[in-house]
Amino acid sequence: MKVVVVGGTGLIGSQVVARLGEHGHEAVPASPNTGVNTMTGEGLAEVLRGASVVVDVSNSPSFADDAVKEFFRVSTSNLLKAEAEAGVGHHVALSVVGTDRLQGSGYFQAKQAQEDMIKDSGIPYSIVHATQFFEFAKSLADSATEGDTVTVAPIKIQPIFSGDVAAAVGRTAVGAPVNGTVEVAGPDVFRLEDFIRKGLAVRDDTRTVVTDPNGLYWGAALQESDLLPGADARIAETHFDEWAAGQR
């Protein structure tokens, strides 16, 4: 089948394209780099012609509240409209475990709005909720750094390898629409501070990581288990230490 992957040249999207191609599908990356711009609509009608499935793993170039909300509102609206006109039968979107619990953050407000638009579109859909990626430990640290100290909330996290996320998205894309949400997470639960320490150690980053009960996660105050998946989540195989060993 023809599967158009919006954001198909990024970390997750490029892996989704490769995996689908390996299984004999026509996987087409769609991004500004390939002449497709979901913010303006440029190239959408052409790339969606003959597509059975659209996978949206795109992300906002800016995490500022107003910018990210505008990105997901406009991009998702344009994409869903073009899909309806092209007769696409399955819309798959990548989102985040705990999005509905992270509404103190402008970014997650935007992701929730995106999910709501998809659910209301009338197009059969599947939403894949993933936990934080191994690769983004540094980004988390950077968002919470002052001087040489990283201050995080005393919460738990169950991070996942990006390749396992791509595999889950690919499986979902070639399956029947679930008209709901599936969750995917890594096999190990960490305290957030321990995950960030491990992630920084992979890069030989010597910043100090401390906890603060008032610490935020991308601007949101969290309960201890807000980032953890539910009991029905699909658990991926790659352990953090296995991944980290391959980065050295």
Describe the protein's architecture and organization.
- It is a single chain.
- The protein has 248 residues and is an alpha/beta fold.
- It has a single domain, classed as Rossmann fold.
- The chain is 37% helix and 20% strand.
- Strands 2-1-3-4-5-9-12 form a seven-stranded parallel β-sheet, with helices on both faces.
- Helix 1 (11-22) packs across helix 6, helix 3 (65-86) packs parallel to helix 4 and helix 5 crosses helix 7.
What characteristics describe this protein?
single chain, 248 residues, alpha/beta, Rossmann fold, seven-stranded parallel sheet, three-stranded mixed sheet, 37% helix
Itemize the secondary structure elements and their pairings.
Elements: E1 2-6, H1 11-22, E2 26-30, H2 44-48, E3 53-56, H3 65-86, E4 90-96, H4 106-120, E5 125-130, H5 137-143, E6 145-146, E7 149-152, E8 156-157, H6 162-174, E9 180-185, E10 190-191, H7 192-202, E11 208-211, E12 234-235, H8 240-245
Helix pairs in contact: 1-6, 3-4, 5-7
Protein name: SDR family oxidoreductase
InterPro entries: ComplexI_NDUFA9_subunit, NAD(P)-bd_dom, NAD(P)-bd_dom_sf
Domain NAD(P)-binding: 7-137
